[in-house]
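Course assignment 3, question 2. Fill in each field.
Student: A.L.
Task: Predict the tertiary structure for the chain below.
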Amino acid sequence: MQFPESWLRAYVDPDLDSDRLADALTMAGMEVDESIAVAPAFSGVVVAQVMTVARHPDAEKLTVCTVDAGNGPPLNVVCGAPNVGAGVRVPCARVGAELPGGFRIKEANVRGVPSQGMLCSARELGLSEDHEGLLILPADAPVGRDLRQYLLLDERKITIKLTPNRGDCLSVVGVAREVAAITGAPLRAPAFAAVPATIDDRLAVEVMAPDLCGRFSGRVIRGLNARAPTPLWMRQRLERSGQRSISALVDISNYVMLELGRPSHVFDIDRVEGGLQVRWGRAGESVELLNGQTVEVDPGVGVIADDRGVEALAGVMGGEATAVTLETTNVYVEAAFWWPESIQGRARRFNFSTDAAHRFERGVDYSTTVEHIEYITQLLLDICGTPSTGVGPIDDQVLGLPQRRPVPMRTERCRKVLGVAVSDDEIAAVLQRLGLIFERHPDRFVVTPPPYRFDLTVEEDLIEEVARLWGFERIPAHPPRAAAVMHSRLESRRSPHDLRRHLAGAGYQELINYSFVEAQWERDFCGTEEPIRVLNPIAAQFSVMRTSLIGGLVAALKYNLNRKAGRVRIFELGRVFERDAAAAAGPLAVRGVRQSTRLGALAYGPAADEQWGMATRDVDFFDVKGDFEGLLAGGALRLQAAAHPAFHPGRSAQVSLRGEPVGWIGELHPRWQQKYELPRAPVIFEVEIEPLLLTRVPLAAAVPRFPEVQRDIALWFEESVPLQDIYDVVGDLVQADPRLSCLRQFRLFDLYRPSVRGSSKIEEVGANALLSKEKSLAFRLLLQDTERTLSEARAEAAVAAIIEGLSTRLNARLRQ
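Answer field:
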């Protein structure tokens, strides 16, 4: 919001200079981005009148002017501007004047003709970008007057960066209202005298969409002179507010918008076919707008139409077909209240923005449409009126207006939020200065927001108003304080950061992905057809909540491969979101949604960086399994072959810890490797982190003084028996058979599958039927007694217990 300071002081004039006024506005929440003079520094430029104009004898495009600059004899000035003419009053830079940029005027000889100064355009003076001709001044401009004094070029213009909620301050009067509240200076509110109707002309208007327009007011005015010049004071205020002067009819509408915050529209009534309809657009309709753009409308866009078709986008921009021109004599002036929800996003849909839409989508005062039409009417009569001008009556249709519900504010809550002891009297004074209607109770204030404040809807809004007016700078700045409580850390539990640190030490890099992902990822990697959908996704591809981390890991791998990365190690620790009817609501939980935290990691490429000490090979299942096992701190790990949509069916396993499934590990399914264009399959694991946080408490024990005994056994098993089942049986035996109390370690060290080729092998292992059904596994047993030297008999008994148990439970037999 930009405006000249003099315009603001016309409504409220506090006893503050420009800098202090800017500081007061900033501290009240309306940041002053800039406060500068309306024109750059220059000197020696005065108002002058061109007396005569003659063609230059040696230059076709130049003229020789005789100029009255006020003091002394007339000046002889050579000029090249196309709009110079006898009798006009223009700025003249005398000899010795200094223009913006340090350009100094000297007496010169232009193609044989002496020139004693320079006639200036607005661009040469830094007033605007207009350089098509001289800056023409009003006919009553005093000749010889210093131009800076005459045009008030030493005043300042203020630019305010408003927050999106303060639509009421998108006008000079709105800012003046705030300044009056901040400083206590009296507000000179504008008065709107009724303009009596002199003719009975009306334009039929039908509001067909009450959810689009809550109030529509308008009147017919005939016999205007559209060629009347816009007064200098109005042009100055518009230009210093960032608006270009176009014509009197357009300038008046823009002026009222900037002054009162009321966007309005002026139709050329002679170009309107029949009456007007205020409605939602229809498929196939289009309109050519004032900016020259033709847009297609639909049922989600509000329009103003006549019998010919759409003539304007409601609350956004008028159409070219009914726009006023310099030939316009009869107009229809419209002012309406458009529901903010019906305007929001409409201009953005067509890739442009307008001042009107910027205000309507934030909310414009719905109670003053008639008063503002009276004001516009008076300006039209004063500037464009003729003896034949006729003013019609105002038609005012009220279909439905916002209900301003009272907003309660608890005084104790206000003091708690602000952190200062603001008294009830001080709160009441703030509300009075803001012009708010309120009821005072012992423990609260109940405020009814005025029609121009759409931002006051909840208690926190009122607390903010108290803070602004009471003074942000008066709120003491205390460093954060909290009662420090020392909590002991359980030895049996570690933090998620320990997991991060371990994987980082293993060469993995951490990712942080969005929790919302592509729906296709959920179908591919999880087999989920109905994931939790996001109502307002930030992008179309982020439409669902993730139930797995795998999609983000694969996407990151693909991103890195596209940038020539050959070896990738990445991991992520984050939440996933799954439907669960048993999940209860809580401070950080949503009913029906289970939000568990998982750890996922991916490895791709060579197992180790290229080096001379070992041959290059691709990372495999067992490399990643080793990285995962490094995360464990005790507990019985179990891997069991099972099917998962994301993993290779023969190279993956379900991970269980302490008997409970916690996740999956394996190669990516070949189908997804092909779909996501990966040269090789990465190896991935994804597990719940809660079981990983539990750790075994270390127990001190004496170092055994007695030697270990080692025994090796080889057993035949059916091919279908998994190794994990063997370990499970041995674990059960250790718990049940006292002969195995000395068993310290039981591990596999050899696998042998006999070949069917060669008769010597057949004779050695037996019948051919056994060759396709059995495998030989060799195990090493470490035995030790902590109390005494282990005897040979106890060692043999332990071996026998293992063989007996495996034979009974898994039909194993000793390999001879």
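Instructor remarks: Residues 228 and 383 are 7 Å apart (CA to CA). The chain is about 25% helix and 25% strand.
Grade: pending
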